[in-house]
Amino acid sequence: MILLVHWLLTTWGCLVFLGPYAWANFTILALGVWAVAQRDSVDAISMFLGGLVATIFLDIIHISIFYPRHVLTDTGHFGAGMAILNLLLKPFSCCLVYHMYRERGGELQLHAGFCGPSQEHSAYQTIDSPEVPSDPFAGPESKGNTPQGY
Question: Which one-letter DSSP state was computed for residue 142?
Fold first, then answer.
């Protein structure tokens, strides 16, 4: 349903905005067809999601630069309105596609180093861990290494 709505709105938006607008949006819709065809592929849905996010920014730039400044006909107003409606619906579509991405087993891997250590590299251990914690600040003498004299 998402693909059908965006295809229809993109087609109507191409009445006014041609070229890069059409290429960007129809390419992302082709990725969406790939994501629908391969229901178990996390790569397909993640590329579709990334493309939708990218076209939000590209559409804002394209519509703001190439919006016709002269008097538009009724068809021109309709096409521009559909392109703007397509842009307004994309964040909602991104939420739906992200939900599908999570259903397929995808994980959002945005970890910034300044937020603290990740789970894989954490210096903390769980309470039920039977392992003896190692002291990361211990010197070579406490690790069983004896200093050699020269």
Answer: T
